[in-house]
Amino acid sequence: MRNLLNFLARYNNLIIFLFLEGIAFYLISTRNNYHNSRVVNSIMGMTRGIEKKINNTRTYLSLHEINEKLTAENVALKNIISKLGRRESSLFFSANDSVYKQQYLHTSAEVIENSINRKRNFFTIDKGESEGIKVNMAVISSNSVAGVIVGCSKDYSVAMSILNLDFKLSARIKSNGYFGSLSWDGRDYRYAILSEIPQHVLVNVGDTIETTGYSAIFPEGAMVGTVSDYEKFGGDFYKITVLLSNDFKKMHFVDVIGNMKKTEQLQLEKLFQ
Amino acid sequence: MINSILRFGLIFILLVLLQVLLFNNIQFSGYVNPYVYILFILLLPIDVPSWLLLILSFVTGLIIDFFSGSPGMHTSATVLAGFVRPYILRIVSPRDGYESGSDPSMLNYGFRWFFFYALLVVLVHHTALFYLEVFRFAEFFRTMLRVLLSSIFSMTFILLIEFYRRGK
């Protein structure tokens, strides 16, 4: 017993150190669902308030730019609506269902916390479960892919950004339709890597890269970026460097897109796996 | 005693606010992010008991973690910095030793001494932080570059704050 006490007295600092590091590593290892625990959630609630204030200031400074973007987007949307009206009246639908034609549900949200300088970047938006946000919904910022929701609390959601080593996206070259897998290599926040494009495919610098919609998360044809460079990688495939069209350093307003037919698609696909 | 608790409480709040409101928003080219809050660990009195130092490091790291949405990484790095601080103080101790009860600041022990002391602690902290963040040894040298660049920036701001305090 005395030996034990002596031991504890001599090494108490080391023991405290190891104990505290243990807690820290526990936090690190559960990093992906840390915001689910209730304790952390309430503390997050407090810090979020401050973060929102910081972000308000930042948004205010770039209001002009945001307005310009919104107007441009509005015009584009109006154009699409006017086209749709015509098509609908000329087509005949036998299905008597108001949601029949709507596959995607859009919710707009504001980014209140964002990072680009880590290896696993996440951002937080100011909408949560109470606004119908769910895990695995797509996040799009002015028509280009930004990330995927990975966790929701009542009023906030955390999304994994493209700038995350764990992020994978099925993307294709718009001009010829060949698809591959897009991921980030952790280097520059403006570039991502598109792999698995075979070498017989014709690739040009400046080609548009868009989403495929195979994953049932992102709608088909959402802009990802443009080809900025490509090289042969291994025997069969290209390694294509993609200049992301979304500027993660000044992302303020995003659209969260839920696929209303996702369960249906996944269930059907499950039957054949 | 009460006086110094108040003083360090104030320093702590100021540094956390500075880190969260200002330095967390500074990102030079995606590589460099100064972490100035470590100055709080640097400035605690020389004869602060080790267990208190460790617990204060833990709390500091935890609060910074909550604000930057990075669970555990700052906590772990700061606790490590708090653990090695007594050893570093022993390594860099001035010729005639430390005055008991004094703060290891530039004001008390001069620029040269403070520079080496701060540099060692900042390097330990940043190395732990950045390697924990990447969590793999691939791209070893790229991470090393980030450690060095960020250390330079953190040191610059820490020295600026210390110069300001000395000048007052």
What's the short story on this structure?
The complex is a heterodimer of chains A (273) and B (168). Chain A has 273 residues and is α+β, with helices and mostly antiparallel strands.
Count of all domains of chain B: 1
Largest sheet composition of chain A: 6 strands, antiparallel, barrel
The ordered H/E elements of chain B are HHHHHHH
The percent range for helix content of chain A is 25-40%
* Largest protein-protein interface: A-B, 39 and 35 residues
- Assign an overall shape of chain A: globular
Poorly predicted tracts of residues of chain A: 32-39
Textual characterization of the structure:
The complex is a heterodimer of chains A (273) and B (168). Chain A has 273 residues and is of the alpha+beta class. Chain A has helices at residues 2-29, 38-61, 63-90, 262-271, and strands spanning 104-114, 120-125, 138-141, 144-152, 157-164, 169-173, 179-183, 191-198, 208-211, 223-233, 237-244, 253-259. Chain A contains 4 helices and 12 strands; from the N terminus they run H-H-H-E-E-E-E-E-E-E-E-E-E-E-E-H. Residues 32-39 of chain A have low confidence and may be disordered. Chain B is an all-alpha fold and 168 residues long. Helices cover 71% and strands 0% of the residues of chain B. Chain B has 7 helices and no strands. Chain B has helices at residues 2-22, 39-43, 50-68, 73-91, 106-109, 111-134, 140-167. The longest helix of chain B has 28 residues, at 140-167.
